[in-house]
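Posting this for the archive.
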Amino acid sequence: MIQTLATVIRNEVIAPGYGRAALACGEGFARARPGQFVMLGFPEAIDPLLRRPFSIHRLVAGGSAGPGIEVLYKVVGHATRRLSRVAPGEPLSLLGPLGRGFQVPSGVKRLFCVAGGFGVAPFVFLAEWLQGRPSAPAAIELFLGGRGREDLLCTADFERLGIPVHLTTDDGSCGDQCRVTDPFAAALARERPDLVLACGPRAMLACVLGIVRAQRIACQLSIEAMMACGMGACLGCAVEGRRDPSRFLHACVDGPVFDAEEIDLE
């Protein structure tokens, strides 16, 4: 874990209400793994006082500013509105890499990823990280859903990597008008994957969980949770354990990526 002042390399709008910021933060973050996250804040800030959690969206070379990371964000409150206005060259307080990321064993040949809207953030990092690795799955497919066209993010990144993307929207403005779990379930019936990875709203994750458990397919879920510290001190990101319901796990240290058999989302 590294605590540092990162320098903003670029900060761009990628869709209405969504942005992507690249941060130069030093060599140590090159050890980050897909699914891990960072706590991001504003130096000497009183409002907002606490850092906010963001998935690591990808690693970047950084050029003359040095190596770093990208974070994907949705403008939903005061902190993300302020983040959207940060200019290149400005500093941000950064803590990470944190948590447990995705694990893709060498025996996995077919991988399905399911993302709901902003939940696509860690999958760009995962897709780029797997590229060229001898143990990478031979086939990767992404199922991406959102409320509307503007919520379907980063599709060009996956197309560039040759990864098929199945799109759905609630309003029918792009792709199929249905829940993202519908084409996912249909694809499972055609060809069974070795592993499923999912990230998105809790209701979507619960649906994915029900589908994979019924078919006994290995699955890992990345849980979205509010965090005050990111290090297990505040205990605000509790998730009920499945093997022992009396024991709560915590997304910041036990996750945010959990094996499907570890947690209960019902």
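Residues 110-259 form a domain with the Rossmann fold fold (CATH 3.40.50.80). The chain has five helices and 15 strands.
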